[in-house]
What we know:
The chain is α+β, with helices and mostly antiparallel strands and about 350 residues long. The chain is built from nine helices and 16 strands. The strands form six sheets. The protein has a four-stranded mixed beta sheet with strand order 3-4-5-6. The chain is rod-shaped.
Amino acid sequence: MANVDFFSAFEYAWGENGAIDTWIDTQYKLGWASIGSVPPSVEQFNAVHHIADLKANWLYGQLKTAATAKGVTLAAEDLSALVQILAATAPDASSTKKGLIEIATEAEAKALASTLLAITPATLAAVLADFQSGIPGATFAELDAATADQGPAICTDMGCMPWVWTNTAYFTGYRNPLCATIPQHFAATARAWEMPVTGGVWSESDPKQRRLIAWFREQGLTVASGSWAKGWGRIADLGGGDWKAPDLQDVFLRMAGTDADTANPRPPGSYQADAARVAAQVRMKNDSAPWNAYSWASKSALAAGYPSSPADSYFGLGGNIGNVEATVMIGGSETRAASVAVQPVILV
């Protein structure tokens, strides 16, 4: 027959297959003193050890059940089993668990069948390996190499702006939703996420420029190469994937609306030359009396384009100053308001 080993002894009860006698609690508490000079019977002896084993069995049963549930292996020479079992619990806000929730075995975790048991840390890591919390970051090179939509991404080396997957007739890939927006700043040169708009040539082979070329084409902001001009928010097709870039140097920005000279709509990207609003002119003439009306009828050579009726006459200043009939230009070489210069760039 097999010997009683260490753990088997915890599962047996002394005298469980033999005869035991009943002890009342008073006798049990007195121990051998309750017997006095009379030796205990075998049955009484069995009863004492039987109760002791039952208590040990209950304690061991608790430990074994917990170890099995937590996947902890018990060993006679290992005293860390209880520590391992206690460590296999995780804090949880569940009021029904009083702040603790059980950790599932690996099999339970993989099965995902229990809504009460948490998964093990290792399985949790595996499950969440592809999970993204918030918007991930990626370099421009990584986003440019992407071949499928992976959701929005922060372009970490292009101003940390969120880029989105874009699919149009002219471009497929990740692009800044603010592509071609005009920022205003005083930096000496264009920053990594900006492209100068100072003329020159853009190429569809350049990863940054091709995004801008596609954007202008999507908006219909293109012209023939012979129609390109400085100041227009347009690009011109030069052929072979090359495009003439806009040159916005030395021009002001103005909201699209209506052309005051023609009353025609002014769409975005259109150019308008400088002009000065028409102002009244004063012409002076030496006459016999001061402030006499200057009759244009007597000046037939100048009559064209000027008023000739008395109501529209210009007045001269009396005195010996001679006739003044020339228009004199004063001021600078252009009509402008006060301004501060910003870097001519647009966002990639």
